[in-house]
Amino acid sequence: MGKSSRRQGREWRAALWCARHPLVTSLPVSVGASAATFGPVTTSAVAAGLGVGLLSWYRGHPDSFDHLLLPRLRAARRRWWSYAGHRWSRALRDCDLTREHRQTQVERVPRILRVRSVTPSIDMVDVLMVGGQTLRMWQDQAEPLADALRAHHLVVLKIRPQTVRLVIERTDPFGDAAPIDAMPIAEDSADVDLTAVPLGETEFGEEWTEQLIGRHWLNAGVTGSGKGSLMWSTLRGVGPMIRDGLVRVRMVDPKGGMETGAAAPLFFEHSSCTTADGTSDLSSGVDVIESWRDDMKKRQKDLRDAGLRKFTVSRETPLDVLMVDELAMLSAYGDSQSVKRALRLIAEGMTQGRAPGFSFVAYVQEPTKEVVPIRDLFTTRICLALTSANHVNAVLGDGMLEAGALAHEIPLGTHAGVGFVKHEKSRHPRRVRAANQTDEDIAELVRTCSPEQPPDNVVPLRDEAVA
Ligand SMILES: Nc1ncnc2c1ncn2[C@@H]1O[C@H](COP(=O)(O)OP(=O)(O)OP(=O)(O)O)[C@@H](O)[C@H]1O
């Protein structure tokens, strides 16, 4: 069948548009039908009741409203205000992303399939490309398109054949903001909540907290992205519990202890993975991991003997946290014997450690599959600036880049500590910034929160920790 040079009739185009947007079409139809059937007074009363109901929900239960309804309302508003009609077609035309139909000479504007807006600053707009367009064409126009849509930043990803997703960063919530100061250290252990350790702020300006008890964290970011602020914020958040022997931290620092060495008194065990003469000795770090695993095995047995399924935090049964600063050395780049041993012990601790109170927190610069073969075992994933888009999903999980986690676009320097976090059960990444930790903040932590003496029930600090 040959192609006609006539355009499809208006009524057909209108009908197709209505079929594609059933919600928008059905609203006026339902209101009209209700007014005709039940009268305008009843219809207005129902509409007013609905409005009051929504207002009560908005005011009465902000958590559920903001989580369930607000993103949908925001997406609808953006769909029909920011990405609709002439505004949309003009933006695409200015960026040379519309095409002219060869026979009819009618302009073909790529059609929006879906708009999602899970956070106020990031929208995901799925667009059906017109024939002849490629991903590259859209990617080449990303910058002018961001300007045309008055967005801060825009990234184009292909999600299906002929369909691209525009991840539109409308604003940069941390752009001009000053670094976040370290939170004050809690007065005493009763003020520490292990299910909500403060780390910084969310993009909404709210406190950003993470659960440490019963969780394993993966913290990834290139050098200079601010992983240090994440580590010290975590330790600061649980400081009083460390002092009181309710949290024990084992620190393995294969980078030679440059950063963590000064805080050695804070740790139950500390290994800089070096010998006394400064040569690298990964096996001493693996020994610390082994002692963490052994303690877990012992706690499991004690709980079993006592007929308990879960531990309760106490001086006798503290939360045992193993931190590894630069996991890559122990998971990929070290000598094969140490790597094999470390991975086996860590995997054992991670798979069995939740119930008896053993958490693993790892920091890594290059989060590839080879470097983090155990990444599926992490339940909380935090991703600061990365160099490659491919690494984003490797840290946060499949689909997170497409869901707006543009960690590879975070500028270094001005945005140190900015990143995305993803929890086990959540489908969306959240944008966050860790609190900055100065040398004085770290010194204060060590001064005020180092355990004065090891609790009687635990093995003494290793040589390195007291050296
Ligand atoms: N949350 C933050 N807010 C503001 N500035 C920060 C923050 N975190 C770190 N910085 C600054 O960024 C720089 C690099 O930080 P940091 O050393 O923590 O990076 P890193 O990711 O640990 O790097 P490496 O892997 O090389 O140790 C430091 O100068 C620090 O002062």
UniProtKB/TrEMBL annotation:
- Tell me which PROSITE patterns the record gives: FTSK
State the UniProt keywords alphabetically: ATP-binding, Nucleotide-binding
Q: What is this protein identified as? A: FtsK/SpoIIIE family protein
Keyword Transport among record annotations: no
Residues binding ATP, per UniProt: 221-228
Q: Which residue numbers delimit the FtsK domain?
A: 194-393
This chain's source organism reads Actinoalloteichus hymeniacidonis
In Gene Ontology terms, what is one molecular function of this protein? ATP binding
Has UniProt tagged this entry with the keyword Nucleotide-binding?
A: yes
